[in-house]
Amino acid sequence: xxxxxxxxxxxxxxxxxxxxxxxLEEYDFTVHTLPSGVKAVETVKTLSPCVIILDVMxxxxxxxxxxxxxxxxxxxxxxxxTAKGEDTDRIVGxxxxxxxxxxxxFNPRELLARIKAVLRRYDASAITNAKTTPPTISAGGxxxxxxxxxxMVEADELELAPTEFRLLKALMSKVDTxxxxxxxxxxxxxKDFTAYDRSIDVHISKLRALLKQYETHAKRIKTxxxxxxxxxxxx
Length: 235
Hints:
By secondary structure, the protein is α/β, with parallel strands linked by helices.
């Protein structure tokens, strides 16, 4: 498999780590593992993995906490490992920015298929963005810096979490246009999570809380009842 970096597995189950490592190495992946999420952020910065396999149920710092920390600085694809039937963990994981999930126990072949699918989406998205994305998007007096993933508001440069950045980019690319939650899900995650489209509301709330600090922009993102959301060029 031609990957741009190693696979990182974060799971407290030693036997599972060994089995997955053995299986993935048969397909020419380089695999690194961690028994907990304590050093996850610094390891990701050092390793630059192509994908992270992250267990939810771990002692101490659980996978959702680790994912929240990772998404502050990294948009590396993350596949969550969840307990079978734990829909809440799955939904929260997607809301926090996970790219996919797989329920335990799982077939290593299915995990491999999901890794390949996530990498294909990630690579396709990167190629498309490189060809078509301008260095900045300006709308309503705000400037979104694409390469830095920051937002200029008045004299302040604000850092955005990866999911909030992609959501604001989608909205600012369609100024004064109402976008449905389904459309936003497709634009932000590039996959169909319509069953959980209310996760968009969580990220909209975070963006609004950020803009609320600035009186001029506090109402920049408008709720279009029965439809979705709109970025207002003029308020």
